[in-house]
Amino acid sequence: MVLLRPLALFTFAASLASVASAKAAFGEACDQANNHLDSDTWTFTSDCDQTTYCDANATCAHRGCRRDTYPVGYSDVAFADLPPLCGEGLFCPDEMDHCLSQNQIGGPCQKDRDDQCAPSSNYKDYASYLNVNGSICLSFTCYWANVTAGQPCIVDNTYYEGTSDSNVTFAYMVSRDNCNSQYFYCDGTELVCMSKKHRGDACSADKECFSFNCQENGTCGKAADEPLKPKAWEYVVIGLAIVILIVGVMVGLWFLHRRWREENQVKLEQYYNEQIAYRQSIMSMSHAKNSLLSLPQGTSPDLARASLYTDESGNGNHAGPSQGFSTARSDALLPPNMRREGSNSFTDDSEVLLMNQHNAPAAGPGARFRGN
User: Fold this and answer.
1) Contact 61, 26 (CB under 8 A)
2) Which of 132, 37, 11, 34 is nearest to 94 (CA)?
3) 111-117: Cβ within 8 A, 24+ apart
4) What confidence tens digit (pLDDT) does each residue in 112-162 have?
5) Helix (H) or strand (E) holding 184
6) Which of 318, 299, 297 is CA-nearest to residue 309?
């Protein structure tokens, strides 16, 4: 019980802190006296939440305009239902209650709200990313950023606090002035406009450089958006690397294709050799059939067997020249395993045999054992 009491006190204190820091919603009470700029971030702060503002009747009301296309706090609201954007010649103040007309030069403006100042007719001559249409808000007053070299200028320095990765707090300054920021900057000591410096020149602030980048070594560096410019030898090296890569790929593909072609050639040779062996076997069987059918009736089995291996001249192991039982070549009649490789002896006989088979009439059932 004693251990739970400190935990309960801590939870109660945390709940009180959350209630104190909570923002009022629509219709709830607020005080316009609490409208102010945050001392650390210089952002506008009030008693109301991100979708309302503190009205004159001391209650939070729905905002009547917005500054951004997609404002914060409206994640659950349809785009068509967002507060309207202000048109040309108008601006939405920090309170975001309703659109107001832009102020003329010398008129009031809110902190760094350059868009609240009306531009001049020739604003394109000195407009830059450091101002809005050539107008700038300095010390809550509207100016045109058109002052040139040697003329007096106005400086507005704003200090911010930042935190490093090691949680060390540091301060940095943003300096703004009404010089023509395309070519000049306002010197903080003499308060006159001076020409901006080129890369490598000595500097003490970013605004002194055309690149808006004063490096830690005190010289103007390259701009953040400056494109890289490779040297000539880098182009040569990259070009050679590309050529070598292309040649290497082509050579590799050629060797790979040659290996596939050789493997395919071996497969085709094996296939053709098998087909030739099958055909030779069929031719041998066909010649044997013709030889047996041409024997006279009553021929002994030994004599019939001998006729299968008799050459065209009648010379054989068992038959004499007078018998003439076969007219085929001996090489063609041999079985495939006894025949010479690459022999063309089957060519003529096979063609004649195939023609005879196509032209001959169908034989009867007893033709196999009957002489013709």
Assistant:
1) yes
2) 37
3) 111/37, 111/42, 111/137, 111/140, 111/158, 112/42, 112/137, 112/158, 112/176, 113/137, 115/91, 116/91, 116/142, 117/142, 117/143
4) 999 999 999 899 999 999 999 999 999 999 999 999 999 999 999 998 888
5) strand 184-186
6) 318
Here the contacts of 266-270 (C-beta below 8 Å, separation 24 or greater) are none
d(CA 32, CA 99): 18
Question: What are 44-99's pLDDT values in tens digits?
Answer: 999 999 999 999 999 999 999 999 999 998 988 999 999 999 999 999 999 999 99
The H-assigned helical ranges of the chain are 4-21, 232-293, 301-307, 330-333, 345-359
Q: Is 263 exposed, middle or buried, given 0-12, 13-18 or 19+ CB atoms closer than 10 A?
A: exposed
Sign of CA dihedral 154, 160, 165, 167: positive
Using an 8 Å Cβ cutoff, are 83 and 65 in contact? Answer: yes
Res 5 pLDDT > 50: no
Name the residue with tokens 């001998």.
306
Which bin fits 230, alpha (ψ -120 to 50), beta or left (φ > 0)?
Answer: beta
pTM: 0.58
Residue 296, exposed/middle/buried by CB under 10 A (0-12, 13-18, 19+)? exposed
CB distance 104 to 89 below 8 Å: no
Mean pLDDT lowest for which of 2-11, 165-174, 243-252?
2-11
Query: Which residue, 187, 205, 122, is CA-closest to 195?
Result: 187
Task: Please enumerate in sequence order all residues whose Cβ is within 8 A of that of 345, keeping only pairs 6 or more positions apart, or say none.
Answer: 329, 331, 332, 339
Q: pLDDT of 14-33, one tens digit each?
A: 443 444 457 899 999 999 99
C-alpha 24: how far from chain center? 46
Per the listing, tokens 């053709």 go with: 272
Give 6 or 129, the one with higher predicted confidence: 129
